[in-house]
Design brief:
Elements lengths: L3 H14 L2 E24 L2 E12 L9 E11 L2 E10 L17 E8 L2 E8 L2 H6 L4 H6 L18 E8 L6 E9 L10 E10 L3 E11 L1 H4 L38 E13 L2 E15 L12 E15 L4 E12 L8 E13 L4 E13 L22 E12 L1
Antiparallel strand pairs: 1-2, 1-3, 1-17, 3-4, 4-5, 5-6, 6-7, 7-8, 8-9, 9-10, 10-11, 11-12, 12-13, 13-14, 14-15, 15-16, 16-17
Length: about 400
């Protein structure tokens, strides 16, 4: 036992060598929204609406949702670090927690960073968010109103993957790759309620390319139903058809809750030169196996509903404090049982004035035109992301806001 005493004395010394850091950070985003046509209810099976002015947190059409987070790391030596991140989303309107009321609904994970990569476990974003989305206008400057309709291709951080294991590689010759796999529910069937995603990106001084893929089994519960207040397969966690007293939600793809599988492929590239950045993105989203027991199917859909989305955007630094951005997005939805395709054309323009490195005031203008038949088996209504859908085929949204980061 002579070796025990000196070894025990070494343990506090080794712990003292570890370097720990804890950082509290956050974002507040507040503004006033104008919506030209917002549904209020359905009368005779058809939606009705009114124009609306209202104060909203950034999670409703702003650049970024308000949040408060804690991130920490501890140097374990030998190129290893222990990591943790807990991030809460909240509303500046009333202080309520976001993401269905979860304390740390945006992110909650812990893990290890090593010379061969980073491994984390918890509630995390997909590889599409990590590698593809940074090239898109919504993540760069335009916020949720300019996200692809309904955020159907998972590029604007609307959903997370619970109970997940994630790996991110080190940067190798300017490339980085990674993947995440998670599971919702307690089914004993292999692969049931599983969500997995992989991706990669390349970056140099001026050019960035990102790609991501996501596969979700029974997405109504495993992916879209990942918030704490979500219901099971008997309910639609992807949207609603509205009623005599409430508006519809997510008419773009909310009618496809019975899909057995969701698959998303997303590609995006951006190029920066001097004071300008231009970007091009494409995604294909498929809801396959419609008519399964994964969720409600009031319209008795079968087969597959697929969407193709193309985005072109630009960001221009007019002065050291003033930026202007513009975006055009086109989404085409494939037919289900021979019904007409749905098409959504969205145009956005934004202006940002930076009062400091941490604070900016901004304005966003977004217009959307819809045609064809949407997932709720009706003439397509415009549905700017994050907004109450229109009662008609056109919708215009305006926001003036202020964002502060700390």
């Amino acid at each position: 036992m002579k070796w025990f005493v000196p070894l025990a004395l070494m343990i506090p010394s080794a712990c003292a060598l570890a370097q720990s850091s804890i950082e509290i950070y956050g974002i507040t985003d507040a503004g006033i929204n104008y919506l030209s046509d917002a549904q209020t209810r359905k009368v005779g099976g058809k939606p009705t609406g009114v124009a609306r002015w209202a104060f909203y947190d950034g999670s409703v059409g702003g650049q970024q949702g308000s949040r408060l987070g804690v991130r920490g790391s501890e140097d374990l030596g030998g190129g290893y670090k222990a990591l943790v991140r807990l991030e809460n989303g909240f509303s500046l309107q009333n202080g309520a927690a976001g993401q269905g009321g979860a304390i740390f609904g945006r992110e909650a994970w812990t893990g290890i960073q090593a010379p061969y990569g980073q491994i984390t476990l918890g509630r995390q974003y997909s590889a599409i968010v990590q590698f593809d989305a940074p090239n898109l206008a919504a993540q760069q400057w335009a916020g949720y109103m300019s996200a692809h309709p309904g955020d159907l291709d998972d590029a604007s951080k609307t959903w997370r993957i619970n109970n997940s294991l994630k790996y991110t590689s080190p940067v190798i010759a300017r490339w980085q790759f990674g993947g995440v796999i998670g599971r919702e529910g307690s089914s004993s069937v292999p692969g049931s309620d599983t969500v997995w995603s992989v991706g990669a990106d390349f970056q140099d001084e001026n050019f960035r390319f990102g790609a991501g893929f996501l596969d979700a089994d029974k997405p109504n519960t495993s992916f879209f139903g990942s918030n704490v207040n979500s219901a099971g397969a008997s309910a639609n966690n992807m949207g609603s058809t509205g009623s005599l007293t409430s508006p519809e939600s997510n008419p773009v793809f909310g009618g496809y809750a019975s899909a057995r599988t969701l698959r998303i492929l997303a590609l995006a590239a951006s190029y920066s030169h001097d004071r300008a950045t231009v970007a091009l993105a494409y995604s294909r989203t498929s809801f396959a196996g419609l008519g399964s027991d994964a969720g409600p199917n009031p319209f008795r859909y079968t087969g597959t509903a697929s969407f193709d989305d193309v985005e072109l955007s630009g960001l221009f630094q007019m002065t050291s404090r003033f930026d202007v951005g513009t975006e055009v997005n086109y989404l085409r939805g494939g037919s289900v049982e021979g019904k007409s395709d749905a098409r959504y054309t969205t145009a956005s323009i934004g202006a940002m004035y930076f009062l400091s490195k941490s604070t900016d005031i901004y304005s966003l203008l977004v217009g959307e035109k819809a045609t064809g038949t949407d997932s709720l088996n009706q003439p397509s209504v415009a549905a700017i992301t994050g907004m109450t859908p229109s009662s008609s085929s056109f919708q215009l949204a305006v926001r003036i806001g202020m964002k502060h980061t700390f």
